[in-house]
Amino acid sequence: MANRSTRDDIVGVADDLFYRKGFEHTSFADIAELVKISRGNFYHHFKTKDDILDAVIQKRLVDRNAMLERWESEGKTPVERICSFIDILILNGEKIKLYGCPIGTLTSELAKLNHAARENAGRLFMLFRIWLRRQFVALGREADADALAMHLLSQSQGAATLFNAFQDENFVQREVDQMKDWLKAIVAKAPNRIGDKGPLHEPVDG
Q1: What number does CATH give the domain 3-189?
Q2: 3-state secondary structure string, the chain?
Q3: Taking 90 as the threshold, does the pLDDT of residue 60 lie above it?
Q4: Three-state secondary structure along 45-74?
Q5: Does residue 16 register a pLDDT over 70?
Q6: pLDDT greater than 90 at residue 163
Q7: What are the residue ranges spanned by the domains of the chain?
Q8: Which of 10, 31, 133, 202 could hold 149 in an S-S bridge, CB 3.0 to 4.6 Å?
Q9: 1, pLDDT greater than 90
Q10: Burial of 151 (0-12, 13-18, 19+ CB in 10 A)
Q11: Model-level pTM?
């Protein structure tokens, strides 16, 4: 197997295990067993678990960025694009029910560990914050676009956390419906300026 393919397999397996078991409770042996490589071959690609963590965070950034680009191209209006974000709670419901939000659980764990990678992991939330902010700007809400983006992020995270805690699918559907009703109210108050203005991406702070 080519080096690149082996490395990608390691990162993919680690990404899944960090989500399901947590970073701290995932060992080199856990990853190597699923990838089916020797420990020596494993160390050829990654010397420490922190090196794997950095690669996993980078993979998640690339994957989420691709998802945002897909929403950007498929959604005809900012409202449709924002609804794509809200609908994650339903589309990824089974995983969220079992393990929580993959971004929220990782950033929370790294914060508790006071891990050096916690700021890098925070870029995952920043990616969504910037993208949502852009959608609210396109709705004509420049003055409070960032506040609206943060509000929606917090609503989504809270719903994911409580869904994981209570395992209540009716609850999460109600939360999704309420977020969409809130969005409708935002649109009703917005100036008639719905469109696609500005670049897709802004630089991530920090």
Answers
A1: 1.10.357.10
A2: CCHHHHHHHHHHHHHHHHHHCCCCCCCHHHHHHHHCCCHHHHHHHCCCHHHHHHHHHHHHHHHHHHHHHHHHHHCCCHHHHHHHHHCHHHHCHHHHHHHCCHHHHHHHHHHHCCCCCHHHHHHHHHHHHHHHHHHHHHCCCHHHHHHHHHHHHHHHHHHHHHHHHHCCHHHHHHHHHHHHHHHHHHHHHCCCCCCCCCCCCCCCCC
A3: yes
A4: HCCCHHHHHHHHHHHHHHHHHHHHHHHHHH
A5: yes
A6: yes
A7: 3-189
A8: 133
A9: no
A10: middle
A11: 0.89
Report d(CA 95, CA 85) in Å as an integer: 16
Cβ atoms of 35 and 6 closer than 8 Å: yes
178: confidence class by pLDDT, cuts 50, 70, 90: very high
Would you state the structure tokens that stand for residue 150, as one six-digit string? 């943060």
Q: Which two tokens stand for residue 33?
A: 């067993």
Structure tokens at 70: 């897909």
Phi, psi dihedrals of residue 38, rounded to the nearest 5°: -75, 160
State both tokens at 30. 């856990």
Q: Which segment of 24-28, 83-87, 201-205 scores lowest on mean pLDDT?
A: 201-205
The pLDDT assigned to 39 comes to: 82
Q: What is the mean pLDDT of the chain?
A: 91
